[in-house]
Structures are given as C-alpha cells and as structure tokens.
Amino acid sequence: MNQDLNRKIVTATKWSSGSEIVAKLIVPITNMILARLLSPEAFGVVATMTMVVSFADMFADAGFQKYLVQHDFKTKTDKYQSATVAFWTNLLISLLLWGLIVLFNNHIANLVGSPGLGLVFIVAGISLPLTSFSSLQMALFRRDFEYKTLFYVRMIGIIIPFIIVIPLALLGFSYWSLIIGTISGHLANAVILTLKSKWKPQFFYRFDLLKTMFAFSLWSLLESISIWLTSWVGTFIIGSILNSYYVGLYKTSISTVNSIMAIITASTTSVLFSALSRYQNDDQAFKKTLFTFQRFVSIFVFPMSVGIFVYRDLITLILLGKQWKEASLLIGLWGLTSSVSIIFANFSSEAYRAKGKPKLSFLAQILHLVVLIPVLIISSDDFVVLSYVRSLIRFQFIVVHLIIVHYFLKISFSYLLRNIFPIILSSIIMGCLAFLLQKVSNNMIWDFFSILLCIIFYFVLLLVFPKTRQDIVNLISLLKLNFHGNIVKNFLNK
To answer: Can you tell me the distance from the alpha carbon of 177 to that of 108, in angstroms, rounded to the nearest whole number?
Structure first.
C-alpha cells in the first residue's frame, strides 16, 4: 500500500509541477504586459477588492476543503455525503456574504481605503457563489492525487487573461479588466470541475454531518482567518495610512516574488499536505516524507531567493517595468526571506494540519500578528522602512514555528538545519559569486550570462555533498519520468 501511495505522490507532484512550470512560463508574460498597461493605483484597487472577497470566501469555505482532504472516510458514500453537505453550506454562506457586500458596499470601500468604489466590491462578489462550485471538487481531486485534471483546469486559467484581461486593459478598462478576468476564471473552474468530478451535488443534507465537519473545521477556519490577517493586514494598514499607489507597490511586489517561488511551492505544498495526511498515524513515514519534501524544495527555493535579492533591479525592470522602480527593494528583501519562511514556517503549517492540529498553526499566526500589526502601523508612513521591516519580521514567525515543531512534533531545529545545510551553504556561496559578477558590468546581457554561470556553479557545488548528489540523481530520474518502484522508494525514503 505504501508503495502505491508513494507512486501516487510522485505522479501527483509531476502533474502539479507541470502545471506550475507552464504557468510560470506564460503568467509572467501576462503580468509584464498588464504592469505596463495598468498603473500601480489600478493594482492597488484590485488588491483591496481581493482582500475583501478572499475574507468572505474564507468564511464561505468554513474549512471544509481541509476536512475532505484530511479525514479518513470509511466508504465512498460517506465521503460524497460530506461533500454534498459542505457544498450546500458553502453556497448558502457565500450568497449571504455577497448580500452583505451589496448592502454595505460603500462602507466597505471606505474602510479599506477605496472610497467611491463600492460597485467594484459588488461585482467582485460574484466570485463567492462561483467558488462554491469548484472548491470542494478541487479538494476531492487533491485527496485522490488526481492532479492531471487540475493541470487542465489550471491551463484554462492561464489562457483567460490573454482572451479577456489584456484586450480589456488595451481598451482602457483599467482595474475592471482584472476583476472581469478573475470572475471569468472562477466561472471556468466551476464549470470544468463540476463536469469532470465523479461527485455531483444532490438534494441531500444532514445536520449531524455538518456538526461533525464543523467540529473538525472550526480550528481550520480560525487558522484561515489568522492566515488571512497575516497576508492582508499590511494592505489594510497601508491603504489606511498611505494610498492606493503604495498599496499597489506593496501587494504587487509581494505577489511578484510569491509567483516566482510558486513555481516550486504551488506544485508541492498541496501534494505534501495530501501525502502527510495519509501518513498521519505513521510517525516514521510522516517525518521522512516531510524531510524529503523540505530537501527537495530547498534545492530550488534557496538559490531562487538569493538570486531574486541580487538581481532585484533586473527582475523589477523585466517583470513590471520602469514605473515600478520603487518596488525593487521590497521585491529583493521579500525574495531573500521567502525560502527560509517556506521551508521552516509554511511546511510546518502543512504538517500541523496533516496531523489534525490546525490549532498549532493558528497559535503561530496569532503570536506573529501580535508583533506584526504594531510594527506595520509604526513603519507604514515610509515605504523604504516598511520594505525592510515587513521582510525581516518574518524571522519572528519562523522562530515561533521552530519552537512549536520542537515541542509538539518532536523535531529539533538542528536536525532540520542538517537536512538542508549543504543547500543553504551552496546558495550563500553562489550569492557571493553573483555579487562579484555584477561588479564586472551593468549590461543586461551580462546579467543574464552571470545568472547562467551562477546556476551552473550552484549545481556543481551540490554535487560535492553526497546527500544532495543523490537528490540530484533522483531529480534527474523524475524528470525522465522513470516512476518505477525503486525510484519512488529512493525519492521518498532518502
């Protein structure tokens, strides 16, 4: 059974990685075009809209997605009945929340620093009922490691900006082009996933199932609220203290870095959660899977972080354009701290959830917010200071997670560090080389050539260490699509 599950994990990672690789080849082109067509103010408006809708959507989901992925159902009937109850509950809550947005649209717009844009929030709220049709299907696909279907869904989402968003932006629709594109994407997901899913909504409801799911999901919901606050409190504070221009700089800088890192993380995090959930009662297999994913992802995210910091001006110029020059510092600092946050904080949260302990993630988020909110309020009147503070405060969050992991999962920081130390050391050495190469010339062609040299130098360094050398061998095997039993065993148990 373990071998079959391992095979599913690796195959799921292949399809998930494939979708992210394709996305990261095409999405940056879309963003490069839109960043030159739309102003930072337009992105700021969309950021505040997304903040409100994502908050409402979080309540509509109520944590049921995680329940469907993590819970051990006795039969397929039990699973589908739970999904049906979750669907009708989600749909009802989403319609109620959309109604509240319609009633209080102007008050909401004023609260988040976008006065006079109440209609934007009304239209954007259409996404709430649409996601009710897709979120649960996505959870069921993830539970069964059916990432091939999710790959095709993602491809549709990638195409939509080219056929909707960019033409509307060219016609002068400003932030409306992004909003209409978002709604179109949610509609496409809802239709495709509903058609492809084996589960279909039925006229069925049981309050005892709702009670069971809500008892499990309560902490997941509280955790989601805390994560939402951590992600969006900066947008709210900057919108209140500064204006939409700086909201656009702030959120777009972070989103740009996150989208780069998501080439790796988005293709592995959901698979990691599904895999750890299956191993939640086997501590040895649980830890081996976690350590393997950490090492596998570290091989890519640590050098990417260093590279984003060193080449931050080049990245800003290429991806966003000259009008976004002020975003360069935050892009570099956020990139530099992202790898540490992903490996030691984000993956720890996935481990808590997979163990059925979302309250640990909630605790970590609250302890972080206690520090984050006052620090942001104090520093938000100067964007340069904000860039440093917002990035460096992530280390407080990481320390909190390391303490929780040590006491509750019985995993020491020293072991975590040893697991990926060769990768960290190689990334630092590569970063030093990159700084030296930048001193040679400011020419863009030289920058690209130096990046290529750094990549080659980094992987040569990895080959010096036996453990990472074996990881490289396994990765090459995976890229060749050799998913026979011994490769899977080596990959997951090394």
So the answer is: 21
